[in-house]
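Amino acids appear as letters; backbone shape is given numerically. Here is one record.
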Amino acid sequence: MKIKPGYLYHIKDEFFDIVKDENLMTNKEKGHKRPTYFVIKDKKILWFIPLSSNVNKYRRIINNKIKKYGRCDSILIRKVLGEDSAILIQNAFPTLDKYIDHIHLLDNGRPAKVIDSLQDEILRSFKYLLKLKSKGINLFFTDIDKIKEQMLKELDDTQLENSSSL
């Protein structure tokens, strides 16, 4: 599947079975897979950032973080496809394109895309959290280093298998 940056996707259950990180937001079924993920392409891997419609819950969390720390960089609440949505940068994780189940489709059958200005804001916030992590301040819930290492090893193993079968 060709990955289009800025679009929304769903992930296969298989990913969660393989990674086994209890802090990952796993798939839920209610007529369609949830959550929906915003994707960022980064060299060999993809980063998935979950979106949640449970905006009131995350507004409370944001307000508590602002009271405690004076700011909240790990969650954004913005309009996505015309609805308020919590963009959970703190729940981001790396994966591979083979674990993408499908692109999120609108009711009219067209792929769901995040507007460019919001894409830029999500990317800036994500990079900021990565920068904080590199300085020893980890705001990510999942063990992104361990998952990234696992995904890169899997990618290398696949490439090795493919080259030895030639």
